[in-house]
Amino acid sequence: MSVSLDDIENSKCLFVFGYNGADSHPIVARRIVKARQKGAKIVVCDPRKIETARIADQFLQLHNGSNMALINAFIYTLIEEELYDKEFVAKYTEGFDGLWDVVKDYAPEAVEAATGVPAAQIRQAMRTYAGAESAVIMWGMGVTQYGQGTETVKSLAALALLTGNLGRAGAGVAPVRGQNNVQGACDMGVLPDLFPGYQSVADPAIREKFAKAWGIDPAQMDPEPGVRLSLVPHLAMEGKVKAYYIMGEDPMQTEADTSSVRKGLEALDLLVVQDIFMTKTAEMADVILPATSWGEHSGVYTCCDRGFQRFYKAVEPKYNVKRDWEIISLIATEMGYPMHYDNDQQIWDELRELCPIYYGVTYEKMGELGHIQWPCPTLEHPGTPILYTDLKFTAVASGKGQLLTHQWRKPAELTTPDYPLVLSTVREVGHYSCRSMTGNCAALKALADEPGFVQIHPDNARQLGIQDQALVWVESRRGKVITRANFNERVNRGAVYMTYQWWVGACNELTQENMDPVTNTPETKYCAVTLKSIDDQNWAESHAEQIYQDLKARLRSVVENAKPAAVAM
Amino acid sequence: MEKATVVCPYCGAGCKMNLVVDNGKIIRAEAANGYTNQGELCLKGYYGWDFLNDTKLLTPRLREPMIRRSKGVPFETVSWDEAIKFVAKRFSEIKQKFGPRSIMTTGSSRGTGNETNYVMQKFARAVIGTNNVDCCARV
Amino acid sequence: MNRFILADANKCIGCRTCEVACAVAHRPDGDVTGVSAVNFNPRIHVVKGGDISTATACRQCEDAPCANVCPNNAIRREHGFVHVLQDRCIGCKTCVVACPYGAMEVVTHPVVRNTGAAVNVLVEKAQANKCDLCYTRPQGPACIEVCPTEALRCIDRNELEAMSAEKRRRAALDAGAQLYS
Description:
Helices cover 34% and strands 16% of the residues of chain A. By secondary structure, chain A is α/β, with parallel strands linked by helices. Chain A has a six-stranded mixed β-barrel. A five-stranded parallel β-sheet of chain A has the order 3-2-1-5-6, with helices on both faces. The longest helix of chain A has 24 residues. Chain A is globular and about 80 Å long. Chain B is extended and about 55 Å long. By secondary structure, chain C is α+β, with helices and mostly antiparallel strands. Chain C has one domain. Chains in contact: A-B, A-C, B-C. At the B-C interface, helix 1 of B face helix 1 of C.
């Protein structure tokens, strides 16, 4: 995000689009509550009446899959009502004329049917946003997990550029990153096109710099971007990817369209899984490398506002496990590339030297409670709480903010009479990602457990003869799972919502892969499903319980039955 | 009793907290006064650490390196030395036969931290010779 | 006047951190790792409706219906709250029916009972479960301590007075403005 969490609390207007902080980041949601208490205007755009919508000044309950149509109507309104900041646009942006070419057909009155939002509400939202002294646009997966995600992000950025809401206190753009260190993984160059510090693999000078530091011939470095994780199953089935080294991830649970992921993993010659838990992915591995967990090692994470923070070791690891980077170093050394580090700080200092935007972030400066936001180019630099304060947008040579938007495209898989409901996958407040960690925590398991839930509006449920808390089948063109109906009046009619960590009610057996062409993010916010009631609830309860117990027992036995070769013989 | 300052391993809010350790075991988590969390935590921060003790409520922790010699047979537990040699040999063979781009690696957006992610991409780029490294930023 | 726990629905985000804190605080060992779906009996409950998210707990009524109806005199006003004496509770559920707030629940938990014949048997003991303001906890109510949005407060006489004064002021001034406009 271009701002800090402090700016969210101190902004005069929060424009929340496709982001449910109360479930995904309660401690960020807390800042929204505080902003509200301090008098900020809050506008929420979401198909569900999420917690933030409850306390908002304005709630635009748009149809699932209509993001781009709504944002184009916002842009239309800013221009047509002359609400935009003309001076800012003239000085710091380019592309204004092109913008109008796209949005001219998106008058608020023209998109009412597509978005489900009355034109007056659309216009009022822009008057509030443009009229605020400062405003932050917050968004989450409700924007990015669509086939048109990247384009939608650009058009949200256009709203900020049009109104001059960038580069100053309380004004900016805030995509709120999901996992504790997803920002950090990106910062560290765990991306197929970027070295650490967002330096391009296509740039020969950058390749040379890294090659020199790593003691290899620059010609050995691959000048082409690599493949993205979401494409691996298909590439494996085509025989293009033969070996897969997965560290600390469980694609069998978290990626869209599980059956396609399964086929991809089965097609590999070699699957190496390095993790702390036996997961559904680890179960399929050829080699399992057990690692130390959070709590058993130290290091640095980057949180959602670009802040580097240190974490320390609390307890000694109890099992025959090793630190992740030590395992990788041992493999590298065995492959003829000597690699050795004594501790986390040695690695950190090596990467600081190679990444100008992190150079000033030393272990000493972070200390125990410090939070240093990149860019931080020198040892004296305090870090950068707000990006773009010089209003130079250096992603392009001109340094000007690019005003971009695109025509709205409908989601890939629309509802039909056979599959009349939209399924959107969302987050569970007490569980996290594939649940290998939180599912093993006593209290969190007590709060929510298998077979998970499908949130449905009571009106839709009654039409289908479904009772609250009853077990139901949810079925898409790709699969069918059993889960528990959860009546929720805040859910829009015509759509149902499932969280993605359940083994039995596994929504990714249902989701589809239609990907954003730029990021290859699957469209997990939209596919067509049908719900079927189950007459014999006793059977259903025992069936769901059986699947759960079988899977638990299976994964446990994989670990318990593993013996040394000599004993096995 | 000792306290270790950590950052919560769950969402991206970056909450600082103290793990209170007694006799080598964590007994509770307390909120620390970090920049982002200002002395507050949510339920995952307060009550989300006991997985470390291998509770087996859901799935067991991995305790030993393991190899499956051929598809469909059970895992064998092996020494670290054997596991590392096995993986290195297989990666080298596949790289030789199908080229560096036939090998895919991932970082992790979760508990391991930035240092490991740096080392993993270095492994992909310098040792394997491919930019095939990515993370689950899209889920 | 008894104090009681009140949630501000404008701050509650429905995260249920209070429920877990309550369940853990009322375990004899205070150990979160012993919590399970079977013994998870929080005395504060998050309620979500179409427009409201909030947490509900006992109001510690001054003339408490639960205490009035208890046939075994197990519920008393003492220590500044409405206190259930578990030794006297027979699990008859009359208090559950009487409570207008749904704040009382009867739950069961296994206890070892000496039968007198030198044989210890495991039996289910019923207990009337309600907020006790964590009166044995030096830091005070656990739910208030953990609430990430500071939506929970313990209201005493002074705070109640202040809330009323503010409402009087707002009502009078708003009404006054309308009368003379």
